[in-house]
Amino acid sequence: MSxxxxxxxxxxxxxxxxxxxxxAVVLVSYLLTLVGNSSIILLSLVDPRLQTxxxxxxxxxxxxxxxxTCAIVPQLLTNLWGTDKTIAAWGCITQxxxxxxxxxxxxxxxxxxxxxxxxxxxxxLQYTLIMRPSVCVQMAAVSWxxxxxxxxxxxxxxxxxxxxxxxxxxxxxxxxPVIIKLACGDTSANELALAIGAIPFAGMAPLLVxxxxxxxxxxxLKLPSAEGRHKALSTxxxxxxxxxxxxxxxxxxxxxxxxxxxxxxxxxxxxCVITPxxxxxxxxxxxxxxxxxxxxxxxSQGGAKPLDAR
Length: 310
Hints:
By secondary structure, this protein is an all-alpha fold. 78% of the residues lie in helices and 3% in strands. Strands 2-1-3 form a three-stranded mixed beta sheet.
């Protein structure tokens, strides 16, 4: 059969009592995600102290979070609020492309951020030479382009499959592995492509993060003073927490057997809705540079009021 005009997203319809409170959580998370990630990008643009490699990669992380949130959450809110659970074919295809692109690119960005922390702690004297702006731009370009190439490959291959029977997806958004389940033809080539395509993002990227932090831990333990060790570890704590929140649910979801689809759905919800909120909160609450910039902006706004009154 030809590709359908619409799909049905079951979402959380097996828990009808949960849809209303869940919609409130999603709406609040959506607004906080937009404000939090946009703020990080704007702060790094206006304040020279935040124009460093670490904040450059953090801007890319925030942009990826905004992209996946804007692609998935509006449709999720529509489905939670109303009885119509359908999504147009073009919307479903867009979700599949953007989610695959951003999820893969975020894996590489997190690995690049780990490399940045390694150079900052283990090669401090060469840091400005190694992590110069042109190198950072190239690293970001690799992250975005590799995710885009994988998304184009995986999603385009999936769209070539014959879709027959029902057009119901047991998920709250359109994801390539879920669409593949609707195919009535042989999907072994698609599943093999998914497995091979996941190696750089779900295999090599976490391994690179692990190697970077192993080398960082060795370097930190050699520092003579406790204050130096604490300062070195504090520069990595935010990124390490974000990495754990990102790779943890993602690895858990893809290691689950097919029959645990409900559990995997809630973990996907955590990744798509909750994690984009937590990333800016973690970097804001745990980072003195961001806190200082916020305080200065708020103080300047407060100081402007008496002038306006006069």
